[in-house]
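Example record for the data management plan.
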Amino acid sequence: MNSDTRFTLVLGGGGMKGLAHIGVLQALTERGLVPTHIVGSSVGALVGAAWSAGRSVAELREIAVNLRRRDIFVVAHADMAFKRMRSYARPYLRQLGYSNKEITRIIRQALKAAGYQRSTAAGYKPGLPG
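Corresponding structural encoding:
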């Protein structure tokens, strides 16, 4: 393939195995092949978004090497808890006259009280949505 060829890189899911996409990006860029677009699902979307946002392959590899399975589940579990609380609590709290901003603050406080903390896995600090 000529290095001037325009192409879209499609990255799939696969959990921790999906981090192999970083090696794909490395192999392509070493050969001067840079995708004009990247699309992905699940971990492929995360890798593609990080690279598109300016993270180098070396940075992505460092993050992947230091990533532990529990780091992923902590983030996913906190996000799932937030969404579940928001979907159940929002209609009730809206009826009581709370604004969306106030509802988000209340839910964040409840999650913090329940022990959910910000993750610092591999330098990533997702916090709570909202």
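Summary line stored alongside the record: DSSP finds five helices and two strands in the chain.
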